[in-house]
Design brief:
alpha/beta, EC 1.2.4.4, six-stranded parallel sheet, potassium, Rossmann fold, 2 domains, 9% strand, globular, THDP-binding, 2-oxoisovalerate dehydrogenase subunit alpha, single chain
């Protein structure tokens, strides 16, 4: 949780300095990492935008994370995604999509496939309460319930979607009541309590894997940060409210005080860890920033098994344009400098 918090501070500032194009922080929602601990590493995850902590818990390295945010030559996504749209086949984490809620019905389908294969694993699908307003949410819950899919729907209800307060989003009792309406086992949990999140996830996984019962978890939390670096949350909520939440119900502070009460943590440990992990993050940051962008040829790869005539023609056209207008293409920033085009 501390690693994620410092990571967010550094990359948010990096975006403001123009060093990366976009970023989304996890401030106020760090306790959701507890859900990662309640899963098996072979369980498939469909994330939304604030699951960097889950990925870090599974073993996604700081280098891999930085490479993705910089879209450099070592980026697993080959520079084709916006920053924070992570993915890892090795860690069973499906690549994040920008369109809202598309991952929810995909998760139901993937869970059904696991069930048909007799695989004793489940699917975890993360989304926010704003995504629950999309039609995809309702279709996903209905098919999961009727087909008895081993899937956990984890709703981070942080109160504001992109920029709309919950009171303006719906009149019903949050998101949990919708799960009950679809006949799905449902629980609402304190989203700032890492242990509560861990325990409900563990129990939900048991139901999903052993009984093929989908589960909806609604974690009530509060988004301390802006929705993204494209957002100014002061337009729809008072700054004092944010500061009060940050001071009175901070998941990092809650866990730290609990650990200190058990004599498992103290101020010296805190300061030492913050100092050491900050150095590690800045080292990964510096390395990623210095690497080239992926080869230009990656524009044309991975769409088809074999390049189609129109793909070949487009590639040839780009080569001709670069040769005709070399000053308009900063090839020195790209791997192989365009020589493999």
């Amino acid at each position: 949780m501390i690693t994620l918090n410092i990571l967010d501070l550094i990359l948010y500032d990096a975006q403001r300095q123009g060093r990366i194009s976009f970023y989304m922080t996890n401030f106020g929602e760090e306790a959701c990492i507890g859900s990662a601990a309640g899963l098996d590493n072979e369980d498939m995850i469909f994330g939304q935008y604030r699951e960097a902590g889950t990925l870090l818990y599974r073993g996604f390295t700081l280098d891999e994370l930085m490479n993705q945010c910089y879209s450099n030559e070592n980026d697993l996504g080959k520079g084709r995604q916006m920053p924070v749209h992570y993915g890892s086949k090795k860690l069973n984490f499906q690549t994040i999509s920008s369109p809202l809620a598309t991952q929810i019905p995909q998760a139901s389908g993937a869970a059904y496939a696991l069930k048909r294969a007799g695989n004793k694993n489940c699917v975890m699908c993360y989304f926010g309460e704003g995504a629950a307003s999309e039609g995809d949410f309702h279709a996903a819950l209905n098919i999961a319930a009727t087909m008895k899919c081993p899937v956990i729907f984890f709703c981070r209800n942080n109160g504001f979607a992109i920029s709309t307060p919950a009171l303006e989003q719906y009149k019903g009792d949050g998101i949990a009541s919708r799960g009950i309406g679809y006949g799905i086992d449902t629980i609402r949990v304190d989203g700032n309590d890492v242990w509560a999140i861990y325990n409900v996830t563990k129990a939900a996984r048991k139901l999903a894997v052993e009984e093929n019962r989908p589960v909806l978890i609604e974690a009530l939390t509060y988004r301390i940060g802006h929705h993204s670096t494209s957002d100014d949350s002061s337009a729809y909520r008072p700054k004092k409210e944010v500061e009060d939440w940050k001071r009175l119900d901070n998941p990092l502070v809650r866990l730290r005080k609990w650990l200190e009460d058990k004599n498992w943590w103290n101020e010296n440990f805190e300061n030492e860890y913050r100092s050491s992990i900050r150095k590690e993050i800045l080292t990964a940051f510096s390395k990623a920033e210095k690497l080239h962008k992926p080869s230009i040829t990656e524009l044309f790869n991975d769409v088809y098994d074999h390049p189609t005539p129109n793909i070949i023609a487009q590639r040839q056209k780009l080569k001709q344009l670069i040769e005709k207008y070399p000053n308009n293409y900063p090839l020195e920033k790209f791997k192989n400098k365009g020589k493999d085009l």
